[in-house]
Amino acid sequence: MNAMHKTDIEIARSTELQNISIVGEKLGIPESALHSYGHYKGKIDFQFLSSRDANKPGKLILVTAMSPTPAGEGKTTTTVGLGDALNKIDKQALICLREPSLGPCFGMKGGAAGGGFAQVVPMEDINLHFTGDMHAITSAHNLLSALIDNHIHWHNELRFDSRRVTWRRVVDMNDRALRQITIGLGGPGNGIVREGGFDITVASEVMAIFCLANDLQDLERRLGNIIVGYTRDKAPITARELKADGPMTVLLKDAFMPNLVQTLEHNPALIHGGPFANIAHGCNSIIATRAALKMSDYVVTEAGFGADLGAEKFFNIKCHNAELEPDVAVVVATVRALKMHGGIAKDNLVDPDVNAVTRGFSNLERHVKNVQSFGVPVVVAINRFPSDTDDEIAITKTLCRGLGIEAIECTHWSNGGAGAVNLANAVVKLANSNLVEYQSLYENSLSLWKKIETIAKSIYGAGEIIADQKVRDQIREYQQNYGNFRICMAKTQYSFSTDPKLLGAPNQHVVPIREVRLAAGAEFLVVVCGDIMTMPGLPMNPSAQDIHLNSQGEINGLF
Predict the structure, then answer these.
(1) Do the two domains 8-132+255-431 and 448-528 of this chain adopt the same fold?
(2) Exactly one of 91, 98, 313, 339 is catalytic; which is it?
(3) Would you say residue 473 has pLDDT above 90?
(4) Which of the four, 106, 280, 376, 469, has the lowest number of CB atoms within 10 Å?
(5) What is the pLDDT, as a whole number, of residue 113?
């Protein structure tokens, strides 16, 4: 197979898909337990999932990566390719991914369903409306927004200070004009005039809760704990006090069932939930991952961005909440990314440069050591691109051997599962080696400030963390009632530091904390370092301009 002259959507469209009931049969799911959304996607019934609770869980494999670059590393592509490869060597494997957001799809990033011959399909559906989960989360979030302003309009028995309403609105689209708005204009009948704003749906705390809840009861409990604003005395007001938790849960009930689709090689995949990897924890839902572990021998999942953000939150937030113990971590690397971290400009990455690969290896090395610090065995997947030379691949493997780990060249983008068979064999060997001594980076009992400091120093290589007195006071205040919460760091994905231009593996840098946000329902403290956008804007030439229907009624331009 050769993907060189075909776009992702052309490859996806040329594959004859299996009916979703046939895909479900591979996992022992009867047709009666699948809520079909057309022929090729479906939701798995809660009753069936409960019937599998007694099953012995499979092996959990995390796919993460070195610090991302504009050149692209192919983490999702590797996740899909590895899942296909495990099935190819006769291991029952199931892939767990996040749901893509419409905003990036129509903006700069494009789709998020893998690429080449390592994709989940139907890719048009997955990247667009899918099964409506994003819309359900948007509706639940905005129902709470409407209830807040309605409460203030009619009687305000909870004594909201309209200046201190913290709950914003969301939309699943990149729209910078909505970041900061004024609502309630037009007279008394339109409510109280106050400032507000929109975030993108995947940045909503409802999305984070959706992916961290263990069941519908836990979902409702967490939704009720959301803090939506404060009184003039600065006492918190929750969604439960507004009686919003019940109707929000009702809106999310069907969405909360995991979505089943397939890969190009007809292997099953669960795609469910999609929280931001900066402002939230960047992992698919706990309920989907747990379901996968009870239905298969190997579960391949991923976490957003590089290991400093995605893997750290996967281990410290998701695994901690769900009491999961990962068996193997795959760190995706590319020669192009290594060269970029070695000081080569994006336009020159196709030029062979073994020395630049060597210089940039410091970034991959720190990611590997960070993952190993959680007690999880590591293998590096070198996602090979056509411009990579044999010498560049060879030096990467040699440098990895110097760390005592194996680096395996993969060609799943062009060859599907067959291009990742060697990686699959290495993963199986590690998963069954009893080398796992999994541990979290910090205990709940550690103070919030110390938790932040531990992440910054241990994972980022920072020398210290700093914050204004106002931020320090806020953290001290949160310590009283939320001291056992986990920490969700929000910083640039491009560097270990808070400076996106500081590549490689910087040491002894300073991590400035700009603000902290309490996510009482998600049960973590968001620590914002630098300028983090919760409502992205569209680029000068957004991808949306190239997306259209052709004369056959097919979607063109979606990649």
Answers:
(1) no
(2) 98
(3) yes
(4) 469
(5) 85
- Is 77 one of the catalytic residues? yes
Superfamily of domain 448-528: Formyltetrahydrofolate synthetase, domain 3 (3.10.410.10)
Largest CA distance in the chain: 72
**For the whole prediction, is pTM greater than 0.90?**
yes
In tens, the pLDDT along 167-220 reads: 999 999 999 999 999 999 999 999 999 999 999 999 999 999 999 999 999 999
Considering 277, 303, 307, 522, which one is annotated as catalytic? 277
106, 305, 315, 496: which one is catalytic? 305
Domain covering 133-252: architecture: 2-Layer Sandwich (3.30)
Mean pLDDT computed over 53-64: 95
- Reduced 3-state DSSP string for 150-217: HHHHHCCCCCEEEEEECCCEEECCCCHHHCCEEECCCCHHHCCCEEECEEEHHHCHHHHHHHHCCCHH
Model pLDDT, residue 312: 97
282 conformational bin, left if phi > 0, alpha if psi -120 to 50, beta if neither = left
Catalytic annotation on 98? yes
Catalytic residue among 13, 26, 52, 109: 109
277 is known as an active-site residue: yes
Question: What is the reported pLDDT for 104?
Answer: 81
Domain boundaries, the chain: 8-132+255-431, 133-252, 448-528
144: its two tokens: 């709470």
What DSSP line would sit under 225-240, residue for residue? H-EEEEETT--EEETT
* Token pair belonging to 301: 């999942």
Averaged confidence pLDDT in the chain: 94
| CATH superfamily, domain at 8-132+255-431 | P-loop containing nucleotide triphosphate hydrolases (3.40.50.300)
